[in-house]
Design brief:
Alpha-Beta Plaits, 21% helix, eight-stranded mixed β-sheet, alpha+beta, 5 domains, 24% strand
């Protein structure tokens, strides 16, 4: 393998790096001053040092891919202008750039678009992952060890959108590669090939190819949990007490074969399917694997008695499959299968310890999550010391293992972050040390196992309880009300779990790259009748989400009770482009304004709680604000769409503490749609020109939202503040 690595390095050098900045750490994410850089896995590129393709040609070649970089985030107006000029935009690339085909436009037309600051060809050198041949650990499976011994590599090759996969596979075979398989993920073809590393230059020169990376390799990641994840008080299970035990909820599990004859899952009266008491679908031949049986038992197992053979969501059910092949296509398809069979929380206690890269496996998970907004994917993080893959995907929940009672505040197992592009993972913990659960090959016995593998189904089970809280109508009253039932987004379930998490005092620093946001403690977030701690949520799906520049505010009154105020923002966004050096695409920002106008930004922490100052978080799609002793009075919780570069961006917001909503006056929201944006301009103008007609046109809205200077009158003196708020 060492010889192969030397060859790969020489080949990459031979491809040339015209216009590519000096090599930087793979995956460095965008900084505040990065508007003239491309962040790719292969290189960091200063676009101002690369020739602009608008200046050196009379026309753009058909069949070539270009990068179009804007001078700021995408807006609907900018997208419309580009499309009107004949630009066909593809994947987003950080920062403010897009893959594009330009054969339907001209260099002159592109130069006339003021927001376009640079256009360049997508270079062959950018198509090759620098992680090829540079695994963090040796191969462990016989198949991959044999390939490496022959000097061969197994590669995942991603094509540009709308390329003909069959034709590309044929051309790749003529280069001397063996094509193992190929399929589409959305509009992109992905193939798995085996070949000599000497093929890389020719493969990267293939016009249809967007990115080449090494195929991953699978490794597994080896009933006190029930009260620890709910209340952390021995024997106290508030969800069970209030009737929430997982009924109607389904866990998807990909693992070793679950022993269907173990008493935790056995139903001698009904075959597997809708009537089976535990297993709705078993997408594999029968078997009895110790790992899969144990994890299934922790999540939803139920022997019928209150002991170690009852899982966290013991009235929930299971859809099961063995671990898929490690490709973007297989990962996406396996999750879709379980989603279609009813699974809404998906527990995975396995991963690829060979890399820290955001690769096809991560893209497959993020694509599934983006296309199926009610499904939450969870992954156990590696048991090695450094965070690996695919727990570094954006939209999943990455789980580490704490010790068990009485030491659940201490670390047990899990790789520390951050990810290669500086995002915070792992995110949450649950006990995974000496966890007792179902033992395969026995009628009704238990066994003890240790690792993040054991923690992941515990958090999944907790997530099933949280999901039932919403689907059974416990929010907002704290009791089950049929009229209040709704289907939560995965982002809301994730935000609720993260909001509930508590600092693990056995790990220094909070939050940190080792413990993330702490150990799950669901009762911290869920409100039941009589609780002092209250809950406020917002759940906005992507179809109804933000574009760049929009925002919304939630006014809350904080009472005098001595308890923390915690606010959590989570969103589910599209997968990053193959080869992108930073996974982040859309940037929302959380701001919390205290009485007296003190501003706290999401993820700006010191000494275990939020502090003033700092800047908005550009990387993470989880943001939190925590004040241990908040001042009583009126607060504003604000969500801002700083940059929405792809689609429209929804979000979930969870607020807990001694809190209550009050009637909002959202300054600038003149049309009272809950968002301050350019759609308010006409309403604001009408409020000044003709207040009576305004009140007839916008009944119930009132003039207070347009009284920007607070003098009790809407007039021309309010215009400057309104214009400044919109950033016009």
């Amino acid at each position: 393998m060492r010889g192969t690595t030397r060859i790969l390095r020489a080949l990459l050098a031979g491809l040339g790096t015209a216009g590519v900045a000096a090599a930087q750490t793979v995956g460095i994410g965008p900084d505040a001053d990065s508007k003239t850089h491309l962040y790719l896995q292969a290189a960091t590129v200063d676009t101002q040092a690369v020739a602009d393709a608008r200046l050196d040609r009379a026309a753009f070649d058909a069949g070539k891919r270009f990068v179009v970089q804007l001078d700021g985030p995408m807006t609907p107006q900018r997208r419309a202008e580009l499309e009107a000029a004949g630009v066909r935009l593809g994947d987003y690339l950080p920062t403010n750039a897009y893959l594009a085909t330009l054969d339907q436009t001209t260099p002159a037309a592109m130069s006339a678009i003021g927001s376009v600051q640079w256009v360049g060809e997508y270079q062959d050198a950018w198509k090759i992952s620098p992680a090829i041949g540079n695994r963090d650990v040796p191969f462990q499976t016989p198949e991959r060890m044999a390939l490496a011994g022959k000097g061969l590599v197994q590669l995942a090759v991603t094509l540009f959108e709308d390329e003909d996969l069959a034709a590309a596979m044929g051309r790749v075979e003529t280069l001397g590669a063996t094509v193992l398989d190929g399929d589409y993920v959305g509009t992109q073809g992905v193939m798995t090939i085996v070949g000599n590393s000497l093929l890389l230059p020719a493969l990267s020169h293939e016009p249809a190819v967007q990115f080449i990376e090494e195929s991953p390799e699978i490794t597994l990641r080896n009933s006190t949990n029930r009260w620890i994840v709910q209340s952390n008080i021995n024997g106290v299970t508030p969800f069970y007490t209030n009737g929430i035990r997982g009924l109607g909820q389904v866990m998807g599990l990909m693992d070793g074969r679950v022993d269907r004859n173990h008493c935790s899952f056995l139903d001698s009266a009904n075959p597997i399917g809708p009537l089976h008491r535990k297993i709705l679908a078993y997408n594999a031949t029968a078997g009895a694997d110790s790992h899969g049986t144990h994890t299934a038992g922790t999540g939803i197992g139920d022997s019928g008695t209150n002991n170690d053979l009852r899982g966290v969501a013991y009235e929930g059910k299971l859809v099961f499959a063995t671990i898929p092949s490690f490709t973007e296509v297989a990962m996406n398809n396996a999750l879709i299968l379980h989603h279609n069979q009813g699974g809404r929380l998906h527990s995975n206690s396995w991963g690829n310890d060979g890399t820290t890269a955001y690769d096809g496996l991560c893209r497959g998970i993020d694509l599934f999550s983006y296309n199926n907004e009610t499904s939450l994917v969870l992954f156990a993080v590696t048991n090695t010391s450094t965070l690996k893959n695919p727990e570094n995907a954006k939209n999943l929940l990455a789980v580490g293992a704490s010790q068990d009672t009485p030491n659940q505040a201490n670390f047990c197992s899990g790789g520390s972050g951050p990810t290669s592009d500086q995002r915070r993972k792992p995110e949450i913990y649950a006990p995974g040390c000496s966890t007792i659960s179902a033992s395969s090959g026995t009628a009704c016995s238990t066994r003890s196992m240790t690792g993040t593998s054991m923690a992941c189904p515990a958090v999944t089970g907790a997530g099933l309880l949280v999901r039932q809280y919403y689907t059974d109508g416990y929010y907002p009253s704290g009791a089950a009300v049929a009229e209040d039932r709704f289907t939560p987004s995965a982002a809301l379930v994730k935000a609720t779990l993260l909001n509930s998490a508590t600092d693990m005092t056995g790990i220094a620093g909070f939050p940190s790259n080792q413990e993330g946001w702490g150990r799950v403690l669901c009762d911290n977030a869920a409100y039941f009748v009589g609780d002092a701690r209250k809950l406020i949520v917002r759940d906005v799906f992507n179809a109804s989400g933000f574009t760049t520049g929009q925002m919304t505010e939630v006014p809350v009154t904080v009472g005098a009770a001595v308890m923390s105020l915690k606010v959590t923002l989570v969103w589910t966004e599209p997968p990053a482009a193959a080869g992108a050096g930073s996974a982040a695409i859309n940037n929302l920002d959380l701001e919390v304004v205290a009485p007296g106008a003190t501003l706290y930004r999401g993820n700006v922490f010191a000494s275990g709680q939020s502090t003033t100052g700092g800047t908005g978080d550009l990387r993470n799609n989880v943001e939190q604000v925590l004040l241990n002793t908040p001042a009583a009075g009126d607060w504003i919780v604000r969500v801002k769409a700083t940059a929405v570069n792809q689609g429209t961006q929804g979000y979930a917001l969870v607020i807990t503490g001694d809190v209550a909503e009050f009637d909002p006056v959202l300054l600038g929201d003149s049309n009272c749609d809950g968002v301050v944006d350019i759609l308010d301009i006409n309403a604001f103008t009408l409020a000044i020109a003709d207040p009576l007609t305004y009140e007839l046109t916008y009944p119930g809205c009132g003039l207070a939202n347009s009284d920007m200077n607070g003098d009790g009158t809407v007039d021309i003196l309010d215009i400057s503040a309104f214009v400044a708020l919109l950033g016009l």
